[in-house]
């Protein structure tokens, strides 16, 4: 993270107090945004750069053209900047002298003051269907790279190009992901070869929002859900993004490029849409982006790409009022034009709360505690019902989990009549079993213990809880104990949870 200069001290204003309230500490300083500017009401780029640096954890920005004013605004911020060559310039960039001229005009004057790290040659070029653009894409990338090398910048600045998921002809199940025939061997294979030889990532724009229906909304939003089983791998996918990433991975792997890094160049969720549009809204947008950031930074990876993290760029920094198309297109922004958050997504710095427009950081510490979202998950965390959660909500959690766990380990058998955990026969005790079973089975993601805010994660040594809560929810802790002691029946179930990782 770049160092910031010491700013002037200001008395907190109502606005800064608001910022403190919405601050969170969910990320570990690795999140990017797309800074689109199809709007007539945005603040000046210098103000935007200062705001991102001082008030947010955003440390990467992608812009959609090589706009010198924007590039210059990020000078001396340390923020990593990606610029995009507009699609219509691609054919000309295959000409070396044009490419050299391009680097001389748009890159060299601003580097290294502005931390330019990547040039994207066009955007979703294969989806344009334009044969000239598609045919010159890889040559343009190669030529631009040669021009960078000529300026001794090829080791500092990468070249790539982002794709829509439309490049896949098959995406379900994820293990059967394939690129469109015709593009696969003739365009994508050389493209992937170029990326590998220049140590650059493959970039994609996955949007679960555009792929979801009423039935798959929870799946798209990383909320608890039944998931989808990939019959080839027997892997159960519990969020759509993982399935999309793994479909792309499978397609790359079938061409021999499973080793390349994948970058999420765009993804997001609109805070407003047409009434008929499933899922658009502030609450869902906040949830998607928050869960997204946790997930991509968690180091969990995806089922087919374990332990990877994904450099990710949220679309978009601002709502863009001049964008054509349906309402949602103008409402993907994290911030309004006055730099107020469109919703609380946890990217404001916890201790620095400022609107660049009116004040510098205050000395007020954040009341928020890290929730462990960015932390590596391990054994030693359990999901329990929150103190005071009402019985109806807990019953709903039980019903939900028992549906979701069908076929996974013993499911809810233990809390059904005759099961080991049937007693104590109270909703609270059964919920304690069910919620933790779900959390462990899904891989201990914080969001798997949310249960519409009735769940809480605890790291308290279960042996202490055993004494304390024996009559309330002992099965949760029996689960832990049996597991630790002799790896018995509970351990079979915990093949998905504690035992696998804890031993
Ligand atoms: C290549 O680019 C240079 C510089 O822009 C231009 O003068 C030249 O005509 C171009 N060559 C071709 C074949 O288009
Ligand atoms: C992923 O990380 C875990 C825990 O560190 C390790 O045991 C496992 O081997 C890793 N898997 C891969 C494929 O690297
Ligand atoms: C953030 O990253 C640093 C360095 O990788 C690590 O030491 C720290 O524990 C991380 N913090 C969180 C909250 O994940």
From TrEMBL:
Q: Which Gene Ontology biological process is one annotated for this entry?
A: defense response
| Database matches in Pfam families | Glyco_hydro_17 (PF00332), X8 (PF07983)
> Which Gene3D superfamilies does this one have?
1.20.58.1040, Glycosidases
Q: What topology in the membrane does the UniProt record assign? A: Lipid-anchor; GPI-anchor
SUPFAM superfamilies associated with the record: (Trans)glycosidases (SSF51445)
Keyword field: Disulfide bond, Glycoprotein, Glycosidase, GPI-anchor, Hydrolase, Lipoprotein, Membrane, Plant defense, Signal
Tell me which EC number(s) this protein carries: 3.2.1.39
The X8 domain sits at 381-477
Does the keyword field hold Signal?
A: yes
Q: Where is the composition biased (Polar residues)?
A: 354-365
Q: Which reaction does it catalyse?
A: Hydrolysis of (1->3)-beta-D-glucosidic linkages in (1->3)-beta-D-glucans
Sequence segments annotated as region (Disordered): 354-379
Localization: Cell membrane
Q: Does the keyword Disulfide bond apply?
A: yes
Family (UniProt): Belongs to the glycosyl hydrolase 17 family.
Q: What is this protein called?
A: glucan endo-1,3-beta-D-glucosidase
Q: What is the lineage of its organism?
A: Eukaryota, Viridiplantae, Streptophyta, Embryophyta, Tracheophyta
């Amino acid at each position: 993270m770049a160092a910031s200069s010491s700013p002037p001290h200001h008395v907190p204003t109502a606005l800064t107090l608001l910022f403190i309230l919405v601050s969170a500490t969910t990320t570990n300083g690795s999140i990017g945004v797309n800074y689109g500017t199809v709007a007539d009401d945005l603040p000046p780029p210098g103000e935007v750069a200062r705001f991102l640096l001082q008030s947010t954890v955003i440390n990467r920005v992608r812009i959609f053209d090589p706009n010198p004013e924007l590039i210059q605004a990020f000078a001396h911020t340390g923020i990593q900047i990606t610029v995009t060559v507009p699609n219509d310039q691609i054919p000309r960039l295959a000409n070396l002298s044009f490419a050299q001229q391009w680097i001389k005009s748009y890159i060299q004057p601003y580097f290294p003051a502005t931390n330019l790290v990547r040039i994207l040659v066009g955007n979703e070029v294969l989806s344009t269907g334009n044969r000239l653009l598609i045919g010159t894409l890889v040559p343009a990338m190669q030529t631009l790279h040669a021009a960078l090398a000529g300026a001794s910048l090829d080791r500092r600045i990468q070249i790539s190009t982002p794709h829509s998921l439309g490049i896949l002809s098959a995406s379900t199940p994820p293990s059967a992901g394939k690129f469109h025939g015709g593009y696969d061997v003739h365009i994508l294979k050389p493209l992937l070869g170029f990326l590998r030889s220049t140590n650059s990532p493959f970039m994609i724009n996955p949007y679960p929002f555009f792929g979801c229906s009423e039935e798959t909304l929870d799946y798209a939003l990383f909320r608890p859900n039944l998931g989808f089983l990939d019959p080839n791998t027997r892997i159960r996918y519990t969020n759509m993004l993982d399935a999309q990433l793994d479909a792309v991975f499978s397609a790359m792997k079938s061409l021999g490029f499973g080793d390349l890094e994948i970058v999420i160049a765009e993804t997001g969720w609109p805070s407003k849409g047409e009434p008929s549009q499933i899922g658009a809204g502030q609450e869902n947008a906040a949830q998607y982006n928050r869960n997204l950031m946790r997930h991509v930074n968690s180091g969990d990876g995806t089922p087919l790409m374990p332990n990877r993290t994904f450099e990710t760029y949220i679309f978009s920094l601002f709502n863009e009022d001049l964008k054509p198309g349906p309402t949602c297109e103008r409402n993907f922004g994290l911030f309004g034009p006055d730099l107020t958050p469109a919703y609380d997504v946890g990217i404001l710095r916890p201790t620095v709360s400022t609107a660049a427009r009116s004040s510098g950081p205050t000395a007020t510490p954040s009341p928020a505690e890290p929730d462990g979202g960015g932390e590596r998950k391990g054994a030693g965390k359990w999901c329990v019902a929150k103190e005071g959660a009402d019985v109806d909500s807990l019953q709903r959690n039980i019903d939900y989990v028992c549906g979701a766990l069908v076929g996974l380990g013993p499911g809810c058998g233990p809390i059904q009549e005759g099961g080991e955990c049937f007693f104590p026969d109270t909703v609270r005790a059964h919920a304690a079993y069910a919620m933790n079973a779900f959390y462990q089975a899904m891989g201990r993601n914080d969001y798997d213990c949310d249960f519409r805010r009735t769940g809480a994660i605890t790291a308290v040594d279960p042996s202490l809880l055993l004494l304390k809560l024996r009559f309330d929810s002992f099965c949760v802790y029996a689960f832990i104990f049996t597991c630790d002691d002799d790896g018995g029946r509970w351990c079979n179930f915990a093949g998905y949870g504690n035992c696998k990782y804890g031993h």
